[in-house]
Amino acid sequence: MPPSTVNGGGSDGAAVHIPVIDLSYDPGNPDTSARQLVTALRPDWADPGAKVEFTRFTDGITNTLLKAVNRREGASKEDIDNEAVLLRAYGHGTDVLIDRQRETQNHELLMQHGLAPELLARFSNGMMYRYLRGTVTTPKNLREPRVYLAVARRLAQWHATMPCVHNESAMSNGLADSTSGTCSTAMVAPNKPPPNVWTVMQKWLHALPQETEAGMLRQKTLQTEFSWLIEELSQGPGLGEYGLVFAHCDLLSGNVIIEPKAAGSPDTEETVAFIDYEYATPSPAAFDLANHFAEWGGFDCDFTVLPTRTQRREFIAEYVRTYFTLLPSKPADVDLDSEIDKMCGEVDAFRGLPGFYWGIWALIQATISQIDFNYANYAQIRLGEYWAWKAEHTGQREKSGEDLPVREKRWAEEEKV
């Protein structure tokens, strides 16, 4: 059926017109349902001469991502890729984790700043957007200097140029927003306007399974830890207004694309782009960096390949220099060396939070996801990162005489390996 359109609320108040297709992707009938969606968007792809093919990407553990191409006769590979469509179908039940309306607004805002591919259409359980040419990275790629310096520059561009869009009504009346899951700033992180990474985690904590006594006890324990984390980490000055920047919050290898170089280009530096903005929200910059560093080990959580102190400083130095170069209102007297030292310290302080964040997320996924992935085990590993960091942060590990855990030991190493 032909797509209709809806007016979305752009961050600048302007109306945006996104086609909406009244169909859904069916994981039980993937080829037929995907074909119906892309031909509703591109009716000419239903012509007898069209040769529509799908490639499934399997790097994610939440959504289904398909690349659709029309291998029409006489078209070059570049032409085919330029016309290609990415179809992303949301994982079962993930609306409890993600505000889909806000995700669409984020995508539109990123498009306006040249940081996202064109959003082509929405459908009942997903979206389609223009294919971004390039090479999807692997965890091993993320550990290569040519790539991680490019990631540092791109992340700095996000943080320096993208505005944080806050929920003004929630700020003014202190009420919870049932649509976005944000709560009053007094209830979550004082002086941090919602939504932000703290309100997201509070929403997830409320969504944890509590049908059993064990579930209720676990939720209570994690809620207590969250309150402690807010006291420890939420009030740091950080970068950006209110100490928040527009953060990606999910920079795993599958969401980093190495862009192709133009033919004959003398530029030896890599450039990268980021995809999938469902977790993007205002956040301390240090969380976005620490979260990315955790992804150097991939879904296997290989702690032995996380960035050493030397590698982190190299990344952060590139990030800080780029950030202050691109910042629209750059301070006249910025001391880059001091800012690099400060950010290194903030990232160190935040290194345990990604484990807490993704640990809660995985506990919820374990109850709702239909994807073949051991979320319960993943939750245990990620929360283990958090507990190991807290034991180090509070001095409890040293007092108890226990050995330094592998992740903490790697984090303390100096050399670039």
Automatic annotation (TrEMBL):
Pathway named in the protein's UniProt entry: Phospholipid metabolism; phosphatidylethanolamine biosynthesis; phosphatidylethanolamine from ethanolamine: step 1/3
Gene3D superfamilies: 3.90.1200.10
EC class (word): transferase
Classification via Pfam families: Choline_kinase
Domain of life from the UniProt record: Eukaryota
InterPro entries (alphabetical): Kinase-like_dom_sf
EC number: 2.7.1.82
Family to which this protein belongs: Belongs to the choline/ethanolamine kinase family.
Name of the featured protein: ethanolamine kinase
Upper classification of the organism: Eukaryota, Fungi, Dikarya, Ascomycota, Pezizomycotina
